[in-house]
Write a structure and sequence with these properties.
The chain has 127 residues and is mostly beta strands. 0% of the residues lie in helices and 48% in strands.
């Protein structure tokens, strides 16, 4: 069983930055592709970014492209989300998720592709 714990959320001003971390335990993180999702109050969960197990390829939602960067360090069992130029509409609970790649036909942007989830960390951006 893979266990994921997010950290690094908090309050930021518009235009500011935050760096989220996702710490994994229980299994080798290198076995999984990883993703970040977010959910704002009253809205559905939405895809933010994803990264392949090796870190060679990354994917981003259009809404964060050019502002957010996903990365990983398998030796540290960690995945990161660097968020720059934050906007009030980035306010949400951010969760990391692990994909065992058992159903590759499901898009990476779909939450149903992911098998393990963290509890989430709150990000609030003030205007």
């Amino acid at each position: 069983q893979l266990h994921l714990v997010e950290s690094g959320g908090g309050l930021a001003q518009a235009g500011g930055s935050l760096r989220l971390s996702c710490a994994a335990s229980g299994r080798a993180l290198s076995s999984y592709d990883m993703g970040w999702f977010r959910q704002a109050p009253g809205k559905e969960r939405e895809f933010v970014a994803a990264i392949t197990w090796s870190g060679d390829t990354t994917y981003y939602a259009d809404s964060v492209k050019g502002r957010f960067t996903i990365s990983r360090d398998n030796t540290k069992q960690a995945v990161y989300l660097q968020m720059n130029s934050l906007k009030p509409e980035d306010t949400a609970v951010y969760s990391c998720a692990a994909d065992t790649r058992t159903i590759p036909s499901i898009p990476r942007s779909s939450s149903s592709r992911y098998d393990y989830w963290g509890q989430g960390t709150q990000v609030t951006v003030s205007s």
